[in-house]
Design a protein that fits this description.
Layout: H1 2-9, H2 17-33, H3 37-54, H4 59-81, E1 82-83, E2 89-94, E3 99-103, H5 105-131, H6 134-143, H7 148-177, H8 184-215, H9 233-252
Antiparallel strand pairs: 1-3, 2-3
Helix pairs in contact: 2-3, 2-5, 2-9, 3-5, 3-9, 4-5, 6-7, 7-8
């Protein structure tokens, strides 16, 4: 996964996770409390600049990662803009149904604010995810007294993502080697077979994972050795100043 590749290979990999977590938390608060799209856009621009320029994440890879949430966001804000019961700007009529379609000016303003806030929050979370490995994020949350059950679910779900991807890759490679995607019809049949068997194979693999944990003394609490990072008062003050400035900016603009 791209997130894991860059989390272990960026310039800020060995900074204390608490410093990056503080900045991320304040930027997230600023994005969600922004009173205008411009304020949320400033949060997005600032966190994106830190991720690309500071941590050294490639621009194309970052834009590629943004495509995943962008599709959901655009689909969500469309419901705020488009109306079928009347509005300020008529767009036309849906064919075969005869339903008029309108745009709402108030909906456009609200959609712009929601989209800007969401992108600002996503950029803040991407900053932490692309600069800090998942194990260190879990360790930071454990020190913040997040419930152990929630942390365990996060670890297992994160592991299952890799299990799903690995099984899907192996099955697709086996199908492709047998010309399973040689034609359009074969491709659809192979894709259906992959989807039907993927859950069963993943469930089997998860059961084996649980057995291996039990054999190693698993007692409902996942633990691992964490790296001891140096603490920098300067970095903490910088993170607090920048994050606090974003919060004040979001409230005043």
């Amino acid at each position: 996964m791209l997130l894991d590749v860059y989390a272990y290979g960026n310039r800020w990999r060995y900074l204390n996770p608490a410093e990056k977590g503080l900045l991320t938390g304040l930027a997230l608060v600023a994005a969600l409390m922004a009173r205008s799209p411009l304020a949320a856009g400033v949060v997005f621009a600032c966190m994106t600049a830190l991720t690309i320029g500071g941590a050294g994440i490639p621009l194309l890879a970052y834009l590629r990662l943004l495509l995943f949430p962008a599709g959901f966001l655009l689909a969500g804000v469309a419901s705020l803009v488009v109306s079928f019961g009347g509005g300020d700007i008529p767009l036309g009529t849906l064919p075969w149904v005869g339903l008029p379609v309108f745009l709402s000016k108030a909906g456009l303003v609200q959609a712009a604010l929601v989209l800007a806030r969401s992108l600002g929050a996503v950029s803040a979370l991407y900053f932490l995810a692309l600069t800090t490995p998942m194990t260190e994020i879990i360790g930071l949350l454990r020190r913040l007294r997040v419930p152990a059950l929630l942390l365990e679910l996060m670890v297992l779900a994160y592991r299952q993502i890799f299990v799903f991807l690995q099984i899907a890759r192996e099955m697709r490679t086996a199908q492709a080697s047998r010309l399973g995607y040689g034609t359009l019809g074969n491709g659809f049949r192979s894709l259906a077979a992959l989807g039907a068997n993927l859950y069963l194979r993943a469930h089997q693999r998860s059961m084996l994972l649980h057995r291996s944990l039990v054999c190693r003394g698993y007692e409902d609490d996942l633990r691992w050795q964490e790296r001891d990072y140096p603490r920098s008062t300067r970095n903490l003050l910088l993170a607090a100043a920048l994050g606090g400035g974003l919060v004040v900016l979001a409230l005043l603009m």
